[in-house]
Design a protein that fits this description.
2 domains, 26% helix, 7-stranded mixed beta sheet, Rossmann fold, 7 helices, 3-stranded mixed beta sheet, alpha/beta
Length: 247
């Protein structure tokens, strides 16, 4: 599986946050196991867990098919629990249960990565079939420095380190917020509506140009125009490392 430069940076930066001296690691929501397969040392006992059976086939470590709110591991079973790009997807009724389960299973450290300071309202797209508006990545919460620092405090964990990963620049122009709120963005190709399950596919128009190619051209024009406006510094991800308090 090809790994992008940005993903490589995220995985490497996250792994380097964990202090040396641990012997076991569980990656919750591991997907195809990219992090475990490529970035975690082989002398560490690795465990993979995901609720997607097909994705889990790619993991090369001992694997468990399970949900994040019911981890099939004993209390303090592994030294480190990682959970990357997962908790921003969790619905309201699973969120706190999931954090509690991560806290229960980890013995020494928890490592979390999430997108940094996403404005979910401005990211909404609309389904052309049922007209529902939703986040195309199915993110339901946003995280900043303060939220990440307090993520596991109610379960007796201390945030030891926070890092911002993959610097980027965002355009800023007057009335940007209001323009995005009143405009309706089309649903991207190959994204499924969470309400009606409609999935928009990339199609060819009469000139033989795919919708994806057309979108790419429009994005180029948009970027060219936006270059006249100032940019502000931001980051793609934020990572938090948590240590269990003594006791």
């Amino acid at each position: 599986m090809d790994i992008s430069e940005k993903e490589t940076l995220r995985f490497k930066s996250a792994f380097q946050m964990i202090p040396f001296g641990f012997h076991s690691l569980l990656d919750v929501g591991c997907g195809e196991g990219v992090f475990l397969n490529n970035f975690v040392n082989n002398d560490i006992k690795k465990f993979a867990l995901d609720q997607d059976f097909l994705a889990l086939k790619g993991a090369q470590s001992p694997k468990s098919l399970a949900s994040i709110d019911a981890l099939p591991f004993a209390e303090r079973a592994v030294d480190v629990v990682t959970c990357m790009e997962v908790i921003e997807h969790l619905p309201y009724d699973l969120y706190e249960l999931a954090l509690k389960e991560l806290s229960r299973v980890a013995k020494r450290y928890i490592l979390i990565t999430v997108p940094y300071k996403q404005n979910l309202q401005l990211m909404l797209v609309q389904c052309p079939f049922c007209f529902s508006r939703f986040n195309p990545y199915l993110h339901v919460r946003s995280f900043d420095y303060d939220k990440v620092s307090q993520l596991f405090s109610i379960f007796g964990w201390v945030c030891k380190k926070i890092e911002l990963i993959s610097k980027k620049y965002e355009y800023y122009f007057p009335l940007q917020k209001y323009y995005k709120l009143i405009s309706v963005r089309d649903m991207p190709a190959n994204v499924k509506c969470p309400v009606c399950r409609h999935k928009k596919t990339s199609v060819m128009n009469t000139n033989g140009i795919s919708s994806a190619e057309k979108k790419s051209t429009l994005a180029f024009i948009k970027t060219t125009v936006l270059n006249i406006f100032p940019k502000k510094e931001s980051y793609s991800w934020i990572a938090g490392l948590y240590e269990r308090e003594c006791g």
